[in-house]
Design brief:
10% helix; mainly beta; globular
Length: 273
């Protein structure tokens, strides 16, 4: 076991043209089981592939010899990546990973970012809004929330402006008619992640069965920014309206990198329920 944390996060699934997704991933894509109503009760847009965008607040982080009270984290990744080439075993391919300090203290994230990168997962320092919680309320009746991630390119807190291009932002509320189920997200977020060396994978197992989970299915808009103004590949750029999301607190257990076939075999089925 490499690290543990409590992660209060919001995940959104974006339908991105399959050709655009494939341009980002050096492996084939597995067609998700769109006919499985427990995962895709309303189906999925044709000729697209899911991309997951997430941001949240990490509390009580224990990583190797480090113990950190709290950090903010964000991810953009492609599930159902066919690393083994067997057409059936799904993995995550990371497009970008972000980590940031609370209360605008971005420098708090430098050491965890370095440790994560050395362990095989490239992590960029980012600035989050809100900077002390998973998301922030912006309206009531109905309640509406927002969250934003900016990648820190140049950090300058003393003598001048910093360079922090936007990566993505969320504007969402609790869904009246959800596009997905809770299980949809449990299955996707618990797929093993392919490491930088492309020789090993890592299990980051999220357990949503704690009493503090407070799961809520969401509906909202996700804006993905790309260069030169933004920080993500242009293949993902766009405003995705009325997408399906999920907010919950999970107990996350991150394991040491292992052979990818073993990582897939060792996924805990209890986390997928």
């Amino acid at each position: 076991m490499l690290r543990t944390t409590c992660y209060n996060a919001t995940w959104f699934i974006l339908p991105v043209p399959k050709a655009s997704v494939q341009s980002l991933v050096p492996y084939p894509l597995i067609t998700p089981p769109f006919s499985d109503k427990s995962l895709f009760p309303t189906g999925f847009p044709p000729n697209t592939h899911p991309v997951i965008v997430a941001t949240g607040y990490q509390n009580d982080i224990r990583m190797i010899n480090l113990q950190i009270p709290s950090l903010l984290g964000g991810n953009v990744y492609v599930p159902y990546t066919d690393y083994l080439g067997d057409g059936k075993t799904p993995f995550q391919y990371a497009v970008q990973n972000y980590i940031g300090g609370v209360n605008d203290q971005d420098v708090q994230a430098l050491v965890p970012s370095l440790v994560g990168t050395l362990e095989g997962t490239t992590i960029f320092v980012a600035n989050f809004a809100p900077n002390d919680d998973a998301y922030a309320p912006v309206a009531s009746n109905p309640s509406e929330y927002t969250a934003q991630v900016k990648q820190v390119i140049v950090q300058n807190q003393i003598s001048g402006p910093s360079v922090k291009p936007e990566a993505f932002d969320f504007l969402f509320l609790t869904a009246k008619t959800p596009l997905y189920t809770e299980r949809t997200f449990h299955v996707m977020v618990n797929q093993p992640s392919i490491q930088n060396n492309k020789l090993s994978c890592q299990r980051n197992t999220y357990y949503f069965n704690e009493t503090f989970a407070e799961p809520k299915l969401r509906s909202g808009n996700v804006t993905v920014y790309s260069p030169p103004a933004g920080a993500l590949p242009s293949a993902l750029m766009g405003k995705y309206i009325g997408q399906g999301g999920y907010s919950a607190s999970a107990e996350m257990v991150g394991y040491n990198p292992e052979p990818c076939k073993d990582a897939a075999a060792n996924v805990d089925p209890k986390a997928l329920q």
